[in-house]
Amino acid sequence: MSKKNLFIVFLAFSSFCFAATPKFSPNSVSVYGPLKVQKPLIIDSTDVKGKKYSDDNLLATSINFPGQEKFTNVLFVDTAGYYRLTKPTTGNVFYLVSIYVNSDRYAKAKIKVKSPDRFELYINDKKETDKKTTEDNLKDAKTAEADLNGNVRGTRVLLKYLVSEKSKSESAFQITIEPDKQDSAAVYSFDKKGLRPVTIEDILIGKRVSNVSVSPGGKFVLINYNTTDNEGKVSYQVEVIETKQNKVIFSENSNRTQLGWMPKSDILRYFLDTDNGRSLYTLNPLTGKTTLVASNLPKVNYMFSPEEKYLYYSKEEKMEPKSPKGLNRLMSPEDRQDYYRSRYFTYQYDLASGLSQQLTYGMNTASISDISRDGRYLLIRTSMETVTEQPFSKNTLIMLDLETMKTDTIWKNEKFAGGADFSPDGKQLLISGGPDAFNGIGLNIKPGQIANSYDTQAFIMNLATRSIDPITKNFNPSVEDLWWNKKDNCVYMRVQDKDCLAVYRYTPLTRKFEKLPLKEDLVRSFSMADEALIAAYSGNGLRNSTRAYVLNLKNQQSILVADPYEPRLSKLELGEVNDWNFTAADGTVIEGRCYLPPHFDPAKKYPLIVYYYGGTSPTQRTFESTYPLQVYAGMDYVVYAINPSGTTGYGQEFAARHVNAWGKMTADEIIEGTRQFVAAHPYVDGKKMACIGASYGGFMTQYLITRTDMFAAAVSHAGISSLTSYWGEGYWGYTYSAGASTGSYPWNNKELYTEQSPLYNADKIKTPLLLLHGTADTNVPPGESIQMYTALKILGKPVEFVQVESENHIILDFKKRIEWNHTIYAWFAKWLKNDSGWWNELYGDK
Description:
Layout: H1 3-17, E1 28-37, H2 55-59, E2 73-76, E3 83-84, E4 92-103, E5 106-107, E6 109-115, E7 118-123, E8 126-131, E9 142-147, E10 150-151, E11 155-164, E12 172-179, E13 188-191, H3 200-204, E14 206-214, E15 220-228, E16 234-242, E17 247-253, E18 257-261, E19 268-274, E20 277-283, E21 290-297, E22 303-304, E23 310-318, E24 342-350, E25 356-358, E26 366-371, E27 377-385, E28 393-401, E29 407-414, E30 417-422, E31 428-433, H4 437-440, E32 457-462, E33 468-469, E34 478-484, E35 491-497, E36 500-507, E37 512-515, E38 522-528, E39 534-541, E40 544-552, E41 557-562, H5 566-569, E42 577-579, E43 582-583, E44 589-595, E45 606-611, H6 629-634, E46 638-643, H7 652-656, H8 664-680, E47 684-694, H9 696-707, E48 713-717, H10 723-729, H11 733-740, H12 750-755, E49 769-774, H13 783-794, E50 799-804, H14 814-832, H15 837-843
Parallel strand pairs: 45-46, 45-47, 47-48, 48-49, 49-50
Antiparallel strand pairs: 1-2, 1-4, 3-12, 4-11, 4-13, 5-10, 6-9, 6-12, 7-8, 7-11, 14-15, 15-16, 16-17, 18-19, 19-20, 20-21, 22-23, 23-24, 24-25, 26-27, 27-28, 28-29, 30-31, 31-32, 32-33, 34-35, 35-36, 36-37, 38-39, 39-40, 40-41, 42-44, 43-44, 44-46
Helix pairs in contact: 8-9, 10-11, 14-15
């Protein structure tokens, strides 16, 4: 080969090896202005610090930057790469220049602005740099730069640009983004809309409705709000709405303990603490007048009698078993719980006389389940531990006549019945409990199945005959809350209805259920007036945070009264969400949802994230959750949320599939559903799929990857690796297993406890697994992740284990929760997008 040809080859090779890092510039920017700015009157030659006035002072003039909607002028880049601005004929002006930046991955980059004029550069409204010099021409223009690092999604870049009539140069600027060399594959894009994908910060930060309650006469609604700021600090506010005019009549920052409505008056009550105890006040929401009702009360929570004559409260007494100093003998497996040695007994406080008397006495906690409308009868519930018999406790319900102090035992040593409430006339009881309650009168499962005790049912008992009507036996939703309305004598139920939280009305005379046409997929709180057919509720859905409504129960019309998150939501761009169901091999229809990225392109191939339930609760139709699916979609993933067999809300038979299964049917459905989902959606990359779950869902992640290698990555938070160790060590282990593994123990069902445990099948795992666990987890101890991590390290399998210090089963600390989520996102990026940058930034590359 000739020297000339060798030189050409060398040049080509050099061009390839030393190719310039790509640069990105917007084609257009949005502009607000010009805004005329005046120099101050110069009275003295220097200020108090001895400094002379300069145009730097003018550049520092404060501006409260307007919203993107004010940036109506569009400036286009010219062929030389500049955006050109018009000089003022006299004086000085500011131009505000705005653009939004997105990156396709986690990367480090510099944003550079070149100009002969002075300017300040802001990123997400925070000043990052400035340029205080001026040059006489574009050729000599200088550059200011700032870091633009991370997963940039809808980041606002803003210039505060100062132009003077005295400027000798053209007023023009360039904007470029240059990724670091190691991030040269990163691609940056720009837009002017001001909308951005959802982030984990959006899920945590902002103002939301937390609860609503309607006054007894239906005239007012009390709305509680909580607001989380950018540092994670939470503040609380309350408002009172007048229902007829939908008008706010009272508003304040919440600092009143137990603020709520009196039982029969449209008056608020609250408590204030002093050195002498707790004082009870009433507050008229119309006038703001407060009245002292009682003082020197114990500092506890109170329940009012319906006729407003008495307060009821519980007093704690601690068991103190004998043990040598420094040693602690457990009294029961439950004795590891902080509350176990506490017992609570019921007291009555007479508001007229100040007399406080004890109503219950004994060894076991006795609590009030309900008070009759006339205030005469109490329903007292006691519970007794039975360690040798599942479900490890029995409860007794007693009706106490307060006039005679005579008792009537409604039931004794019932295993599965829960709370009870009086009917308006006091002749019946509305009861919640598991399907097995009252000798299984409400069971609706197949032969050979065991009911899922977490699938709560409703019953009505006739107090005269003690006959029980299992009213939800043929009603598929699982009961969350129950109320018996005084005004229309109907039973209202807030229920888990498939992946929704809905409210149904049950009419005892016709025995029919009617779903209320409420405006939200997930009704979080529901409250009814006693003396009017008026209700209030709050809820959220797939595309919004929690809102509050007033509901007319006659015509079932809802009126929106509060939507505090809307200003933040209006800045977010959400992807499309569609229901997607499939028919499993056994003919069962398995429901689910498909989340698409905001800028979805059907011609592209997207990685897929598969998410499934934890515990026995379905993956709900919520915008906000611990695992926010809209955030994953906003990072250019398609998300498949599936509700396989075993979850509540789909009927007793469906929920019973959870019991003594530990993944057998559920895993098959997730695998089958994922395959069908990929086949039905050509834009999904079937080689780039991940699965994620927590608690029981974390167990499911581990179990799934012992059954299939179809996933390129997996995430298990607080997952169970060994059913035996979880059963014995988890504070809730043996009690949760009483429902999930009814009748099965390590000594009588060894196959279940070993073969269904991922740890005993660790050698089958090929999928890279991220284990996450709070170090203070009492439900699923961190040892469940430790032993799986140890096994996979010994086997040489790809695994990472990240502990979240001092956090329990759910990660609640604001900053830790953000970094914990970032860890998940970085893991997905590493294995689904071949991008290790974020992971390496968090944890290093070794």
